[in-house]
Structure formats: structure tokens, C-alpha cells
Amino acid sequence: MTAAIDPGLLSEVALNQDEYDLIVKLLGREPNHVELGIFGAMWSEHCGYKTSKPLLKNFPTSGPGVLQGPGENAGAVDVGEGWAVVFKIESHNHPSAIEPHAGAATGVGGILRDIFTMGAFPIATLDSLRFGPLDNPRNRHLFGGVVSGIGDYGNCFGVPTVGGEIYFEDCYTENPLVNAMAVGLIRRDRLMLAKAEGPGNLVMLVGADTGRDGIHGATFASVELGADSESRRPAVQVGNPFLEKLLMEACMQLIKEDLVVGMQDLGAAGLTSSAVESASRGGAGIDLDIAEVSRREQGMGAYEVMLSESQERMLIIVEPDRKNDVDRVFRRFDLHADVIGEVTDSGRLVVRDGDRVEADIPLPLLVDEVPLRHPEGAAPPERLRLREQVIDLSDAPGHQDALLRLLASANLGSRAAVFRTYDHQVQNNTVVLPGGDAAVVRIKGTRRGIALSTDGNGRYCYLDPRAGAAIAVAEAARNVVATGARPLAITDCLNFGNPEKPEVFWELRESVEGMAEACRQLGVPVVSGNVSLYNDTSGVSVWPSPVVGMVGLIEDIDRRLEAGFRSAGDVVVLIGESRDELGGSEYAKTCLGVVAGRPPAVDMELERQTNGAILELAADGALASAHDVSDGGLAIALAECCLLSDLGAAIDALPGGGPPEAALLFGESQARYVVSCPADRVDDVLATCRRSDLHATAIGTVGGDRLVIGGTIGVELAALREAWETALG
């Protein structure tokens, strides 16, 4: 047993005494200060996945089109005609809670580097955001800072922000969730992997000079926030999108000229993780001399250089006889690169400062020996009781009042005020703009398009994490299918509280199992992702908030669909069955003040059959529009179809004799779409649904300047729009 070490020092590197004892045992000696910092970073939850790794093995990660699954900077899938799409989603939650603008901006920068590190040209970004209610000044400050940070970085870099989602709940007060997704394209035979291999090859560091910003960023992301979190401000990085643009162009040129062996961006844990992970993937060792690292601050020692998370930096592995050509490319883009070491066959990470050895660690200790944590998980009894609570409609408002209140709510109102701050058409590839179910970006030179969506529902997961996570997968798939795209694969970001709490670990375990089963049944593999735990402030955990980023393929973008109605006279058809399912709904929260009940049931076989019917109808050209029914239920979906097209609708054939009318209008039953079609194609639509044993009903017609639903709702589009467009204040 080793002597006890200062708990404050261990807290700084997010380790405990048992983990420190294991380090001493594995090394056969006490680690020095630099080595302890390296272990802390690589064994952190953020880098080492020590709580989630045993659970993540449940995910399906392979499939016919998968070119690269988890384990690299991003996942990649084949989209035909020699092209691959590369994508990943990651969190930047804790930094955004401290410095919302810088935290969100560098989150975008980091995920973009993950894409072009693979050799792919970034074509789109999306986001998934969670905040506390906007009547709290602090929450509004966080909201404004995050939105401006995302917009500033993406707009300056020149990548369109094409979609995303935003929700507001009390549990995210002080601890926002900021998830950024990036998508890129590459010729499938040009994929670049982050491997340091070939003893004697040079290790080059290119991009920004190294500073003190971001030190302990990885460990900061692996602890709870609290009263002293402001002191962690130096752990928040500072970004420079213009420099990143140059860095990307240089990296693209290096790959085009076949000048590099491998590339790895410097993200969490900076030079430490990039060196360790790339050497480990290549089955090699790596020898670094930090005296050769260019710095923008004086007096930085090995500890700071190795753990700095200064942005816009890349590690490049280069054969010695290619160095001059590499230097030529960097000079062309006004970048300088330092040779900071070489690849070895030692299987060790050696860090020197000139002639002085600062760290010498066998690489397997940092990668393969991460001590896994197996917390106890237990469902909290009060949550189970809440799930069984019956939704009481005795004090429910009138249906028209409920519709207007829902449209004016922060969770369902228009996001135009947000996405108009983003350039969503730069590169001139965006063919379905933000505001609908999913964005669509063309693949230039082909007729194909990529459909993109992010989805998640923390309220469902709070009430039933297994069902809620499965619904996130199903909802993301429906959003992609609603554009006419076939779902290909997902990336995920698992946002949870402190897993040392039994109820939080239960939420995490249930969510992963629900998501994994949903992916298996839909045939959609998980090819990349991120886990963000310890999303707690002063002991209060966020709701379990798994987020799914879905990518789909449209064979012919001229056959794409959008959510808004297209033409007056078209027939509105409801595909799918509406049940008495108000549990966990926006209606229950907004109109009844209740967060309770069972979330809607999800049947993945039914989802698959319904999606197949929509894709068949889209390919046949039978549909004029398609919109999935989700948050807010059928009435909200119809209102959105009207508002997105500025066309009214008369709905007069809602099914009767089953659920209460409130559930028909505002229940959130799954596997449902509102579609419209020309009158002469209605029979084709209904026949296709019958062949798949699906419920389908022609419920009304498009036209006019009002939304009329039965005898209880009749409201001018102008009134709907006023409520919808002012929701965010």
C-alpha cells in the first residue's frame, strides 16, 4: 500500500486514492508530477470511459456500409459512387457552463477537426442544446452565449450549420448541455487514420502555438460543477476559426499529395491524448521533446505543455524524406510546424525537455489498464411511482387554447431566431434548410443527398430511460425518413449526471440498452460518439439526456420531401395509430403542469414497417410532403405543416371511439407521419399502407388561411404564427 497522497492533488487530476495506488503498482514506483497529470488525463472519464466502456460494448457497430466504426476520430459509412460520409457528435458541456461563447465555439472547432483529421471535407454541422428556463437571467446568458459561439465559429470557418434541437427544462439550469455534430465527405479510398507507425518517422505539431488555456479540460469534464467552478475558467479553451480554416486546407492538401502517414487532432488532454492514442493505434511507441513545442506564453513546463488544450493544433506523422514537402504545404497556408519527436518501437511514451526525461510510461498502462468502475445501479422508487401516475384531464384547457399555448412554449416554438444567426447555405449544398424534420445536403457531382438530424428527449428518459433512449433512435430515423432518406448509421452523445449515484448509473445502463436494442432492430449501427458524465451542479443531476445524430441517404435529391404542405387541394393523410399516450408529453407539462406518466410505447418493428412505406411512397413520387408526429402530437404537427408552407388545412376525419380527444390531438404516440399528396394519389398512399398492415386515414385537405380541426379548433394562421414565432422571446 502506498502512502496517502494529497487529496487536493488527486482531485486536480480527477483520480482517487485506489487509482493512484494502482498507478504505483503498474509503474513499480511513484509517478512524478508530469506522469500523474498524464495518467489523470488518460484515465479520466472523458478520455478513458472508465464507467461507460463496459456498457458501450452493447452497441451494434458494424454493417454493410460501415467503413470505420468507433475507435477513430469519427465514424465513416459508404454513400455510393465512391463517396463516404464521416461524422461524429461530441459534448462541450462544462466549458459552456463557465464561458458559454468560448465553450460552444471550441466545441464546434473540436468536432470539425475530428472530421478533417480523417481526410474528409466538412460539409455541415448540427447541434443539440439544453438550457434551464429562459426567465432565469443566468440561463438566458448561457443560451445567448452558446448560440453566438456556435454561429461565430461555424460562420467564420465556412461550414453551414444546418440543423439541431433545443429544449428547456429546470434540470439544465446552471449545467447546459452543448452537443456539436459535424459531417464531412471524402472519397472512400482516401480515408486517413490516426496512427503513429513506422519507427523513425517524424512527429510534427502544426497549427496554433501552445498556451495555458484548457489545461485540465479533460479532467474538468469528469467532475461535478460546484461553487468553485468559476476557478476552472482557465480550463476553457480559446478558439480561432480562421486559423482552423487554414489548418484544414493544409491537411486536405497533405492528404491529396499523400505526404503523411497519420494525423490526429489535439482535443481533450491535448498533446497527451493525441500522442498516446495515435501511438497505441499504430502499435508503436513515441518519443517527444517538449522543448521543440512553440509556445505563446513564457515559463510553461512539461506538465502544462502536455496537458494544454489550446485549439487549432494537429499532430502529423511524416516520413523523414517527406518533411520538406510537408513544410512547403504549411508555408503555403502561413502555418509553421515543429518536429517535436519521433515514432519508436519501444511501446512507451517518453517525454523529454531537452536532455531531461520528464515522463516515461508504457503505453498500455495509459490505454489498456484504465481501471473500470462498476457502480451500483438502482431505479429510484419515486421515479417508478411517477411513471405509473395517470394523467388527469379534469382541469385541461380547451383544445384551441392548448394548441396556442404549446406553440408559444419554449420547447415547441419556432427556432428561426436561432438558426437565422447561422449561415446554413455557405458552400451552396444545403437543399433542405433548417426548420423541418431533417436537413439535406447534396453530394456535388451526383444526384445523391445526405439527410441529417439530431434528436433526444430528456423528459422521456427521466420517466423511463430505456424507452426514452429507444425513442430517440426512432425519432431520429423518422426525421431522416421524412425527407425521403434511408437511415444509414448514428453517432451518439450520452449526457448524464454523476454515475456514482445509483439512480444515475441505472439511467445510463438502461439508456444504453434501450438505444442498442433500437439500433439492432432498425439495422442502424453506431459508428462514433461521446460520453459526457458528471453533468451535475452542486449535487443536482441533469435528466438523462442521450442524443442521437442520424445520417441518411437520398438516392435522388429531386425526390426529397419537406415538412410543409405544398399545394392547396392536396389531401392530408395520417399514417400510424393514435393511442391514449399523454405520459411525458409536452401537453402534460405545458398545459397541465405535470411531468409524469409512461412515455409512449415504441415498437421498432412497426417503426421499420412505417419508415419503409414512407420511403416507398417518396421514391414513387406519390407524396407532396411528409412530417413525423412527435413532440406536441398531431395538432402541433399539423400546425407546423401549415406554418412552414403558409397554407391552411381543414381536418375533419379524426378517428373516434378510442382515446380521449386530448390524446388524439396532443398525445405523442410513435410511428406516425402526417403526409400530403395530390388527390389522384390518395388511393396509392392508402394501398401502400394497407400492404404493410399500417393504419392510414385521409383526414382532410390543404388550403385557406386557417387550421380547422374538427369542431374544437379553428384558428387563423396569423394567430398561430404570432404564438409560434415569439416563443423564445
List the helices and strands and how they pair.
Blueprint: H1 7-12, H2 17-27, H3 33-42, H4 45-48, H5 53-56, E1 66-68, E2 75-80, E3 83-91, H6 93-98, H7 100-116, E4 121-131, H8 137-157, E5 161-168, E6 177-187, E7 202-207, H9 217-220, H10 241-256, E8 262-265, H11 270-281, E9 285-289, H12 302-307, E10 313-318, H13 323-332, E11 337-344, E12 348-353, E13 356-362, H14 363-367, H15 381-387, H16 399-407, H17 416-419, E14 430-432, E15 439-442, E16 449-455, H18 458-463, H19 465-481, E17 486-495, H20 502-522, E18 526-532, E19 536-537, E20 540-541, E21 545-554, E22 571-575, H21 586-592, H22 604-620, E23 625-628, H23 633-645, E24 649-651, H24 661-666, E25 673-677, H25 682-691, E26 696-702, E27 706-709, E28 713-716, H26 717-725
Parallel strand pairs: 4-5, 9-12, 17-18, 24-27
Antiparallel strand pairs: 1-2, 2-3, 3-6, 4-6, 7-10, 7-11, 8-10, 9-11, 12-13, 14-15, 15-16, 16-21, 17-21, 19-20, 22-25, 22-26, 23-25, 24-26, 27-28
Helix pairs in contact: 7-8, 8-10, 10-13, 16-26, 19-20, 19-22, 22-25
